[in-house]
Design goal:
The complex is a heterodimer of chains A (about 260) and B (about 60). Chain A has one domain. Chain A is about 75% helix and about 0% strand. In chain A, strand 1 and strand 2 form a beta hairpin. The longest helix of chain A is centred in the last third of the chain and has 53 residues. Chain A is elongated. Chain A starts with 15 loop residues before the first helix and ends with a helix. Chain B is mainly alpha-helical and about 60 residues long. The radius of gyration of chain B is 23 Å and the shape is rod-shaped. The chains are: A mainly alpha (about 260), B mainly alpha (about 60). At the A-B interface, helix 2, helix 3, helix 4 and helix 8 of A face helix 1 and helix 2 of B.
């Protein structure tokens, strides 16, 4: 007996979690989430930017350049969080062969690459007035550059394996191997003597005054909300692309059958 | 408003660069979404529909 494809509405699962992650059901419930997510993102950015420019003091050492932190840190956080999300999705692809896990991985990769690029770019611009150099081959910066190159590799792999069923599994393996880089990025500032400053979150609390931490937190939430908005729209687009590809393939094969049936 | 001082170029470039990337991501995501919707609409116009869509149409009839 033919098992219904997970990309079709037919045979929608009854389990609540499976229903939530079923492509057809996902398209239906996610539609209602897009506008609230856009509104949340816009409000968070408005408040965060107001704090960043008008309601936070300059740092006693870095001066006004501390304001670069409000976009550098959120993008650096997203560069790692997006990869972690891709790694979890990769497990979903390899263990449960869930089509939504493939969709999630594919939609997240270009977004992760963009956020990592912004983290590297703003980091270099922050480094010049603070450290006197745009770039240093230290643990944190080098491992983040490796992360950016891995994102580009994954985006290229998705393009290479477009429409091939086994492609997602190969990319999932590559993604999981690359996930080893995430703890290296996170702990690089503790393991090695780096130019990059250590984490602001310590066991005994924050190493930053609330006047600087508040805009940082709001901007981090704003960028995170932006990612989830774009990721949700990207996942919906991937499902639609999959459907359109399937329909075109079916149409072409039906046409071919018709041509060979009427031929001599 | 802040006085960015001698490092204004670094602060402005950072925010401008980030804004351009975010803007590009938004436009690119919307463009992709629109393109796939148009593809499906075109296919539907040609009478090429998904099995479940055909079933629901038949049920309505």
């Amino acid at each position: 007996m033919n098992k219904p494809s997970a990309m079709t509405d037919a045979g929608a699962p009854t389990n609540w979690f499976s229903r939530l992650a079923h492509p057809g059901v996902f398209l239906s419930w996610s539609r209602d989430w897009i506008i609230p997510l856009i509104a949340t993102t816009a409000i968070l950015f408005a408040i965060g930017l107001w704090y960043a420019f008008f309601n936070s003091p300059p740092d006693y050492q870095m001066g006004e350049t501390v304001r670069i932190m409000y976009i550098h840190v959120p993008n650096a956080w997203l560069s790692q969080m997006v990869y972690a999300l891709m790694a979890v999705s990769a497990i979903g692809t390899l263990v449960w062969r869930h089509p939504m896990a493939d969709v999630s991985m594919k939609a997240a990769a270009p977004l992760g690459a963009a956020f990592t690029a912004v983290a590297l770019f703003t980091g270099a611009l922050w480094g010049r007035p603070t450290w006197g150099t745009f770039w240093e081959w230290d643990g944190r910066m080098t491992s983040t550059l490796v992360l950016f190159l891995m994102y580009l590799g994954i985006v290229a792999l998705w393009r290479t394996f477009e429409g091939q069923p086994r492609g997602a599994r190969i990319i999932a393996v590559f993604t999981l191997v690359g996930a080893l880089n995430i703890p290296i990025i996170k702990f690089s500032v503790d393991w090695w003597n780096t130019l990059h400053q250590p984490s602001i979150i310590k066991a005994d609390g924050l190493s930053m005054p609330a006047s600087l931490y508040t805009p940082l937190l709001i901007m981090t939430l704003a960028f995170t909300a932006l990612f989830f908005t774009l990721h949700m729209v990207g996942m919906r687009t991937e499902i639609l692309r999959h459907r359109a590809n399937n329909l075109e393939r079916r149409h072409v094969s039906a046409q071919n059958r018709g041509t060979s049936g009427t031929g001599t | 408003m802040i006085d960015p001082g001698p490092h204004a170029i670094y602060i402005v470039s950072s925010y401008l660069g980030a804004a351009l990337v975010v803007l590009f991501l938004i436009v690119w995501t919307m463009f992709n979404a629109h393109r796939q919707k148009s593809r499906l609409e075109q296919l539907e116009k040609l009478g090429i529909r998904r099995q479940s869509a055909l079933t629901s149409t038949r049920e309505e009839e």
